[in-house]
Amino acid sequence: MKRKLEIIEELKQIEARSAELEAGVETAEQAEIEARTKEAEELQKRQSALKEELQKIEAEERAAAELNPATATEIKPKENETMERKITIESEEYRNAFYAMIAGKETEEQRTVLSTPISVDGDSTYDGAAIAIPKSLDTKIWDNIHTAHPILKDINVVKSGVIMEVTRHTTIKNRTSSKKDGAVNSTGDQENVFTKVQLTGKDYETYVELTYAEAKMSQGALEDYLAQEIADELGEALAKDVFARVLSDATTAQKITSTNDIFADVKAALAKATLADAPVVYAPASDYYDIVGATNTNGTPVNIKGTFGCEIKRDDAATKVTILDPAKFILNEVQAVMIETDKDIKAHKVIVSGYQRAEGCLRKTTAASYID
To answer: Following CA atoms 330, 332, 337, 342 in sequence, which dihedral angle do they give, to the nearest 10 degrees?
Structure first.
């Protein structure tokens, strides 16, 4: 019991430290980023080892209770309350069943756990062949996606689970909103143009092939592997579509034609994004390093944030240098990431399919601009 409490306490400390390492990484120097990354990897390994040890201890406790029921602690329900085992994607029981299924070693009880409808984020219910992924795997997938594509962390994500209709603000002709009693609105009144946009979602999917031996690796190792593989494919596709939608919604009216002076072009593009209250510059690698590596006439590095008044982030899903107030872009997640598995008995492989459905749009067209 003492060791179990020690493990739980250390896991809490690792979680807290991991959050500290993630905070502020985007503005850190390269050397500090590498040091943080290395420490985060070591913490992740330690976390996986502790979780496996905790699982063994809990399994031993269950086995001991079955052999000697008298030693088991009986939890009695309160008055008017029924005892009901609740399975969630956060529970260790669900996680164990999930990875046992992938390895092809699930018990009848674990099959029941996985086939029980589970509510995720209050709306999406999983039932049948496709199942919800454990919370720990979902967290790792999105951590990997956000690291590679910061735009997906910055934008406004709504996990609605349904088709959503949003209002897009396309034009503000006048900022005055005075009202004249008994008179037709004059040109001095506010004249806004709105459009309705339905976010029905686009399908994103990826496939991971595992040999039978790979499917039986430790839960921690398998979780890390699946998280990276699924994140690489889904994240890349989703980020590319978000950038494409930003350019499409912004239209050519928000375009700055390149003068081959990237510094001057970014300034002009920022000035074009008039409704970007908190703009961020997203750039693919080549443009990103041109911007952050800029120096003045004396060869001194330019204070980018001080010059532009905003952050510069590298995102290789961007096809052009894109200026965006991410809070003005909404991404509707119609279907959270879910998993289906199958076996290829000829190739002796387990096929894990990841699927998601989402779509987004720019709420205010002048909250973005880009360099062409």
So the answer is: -130
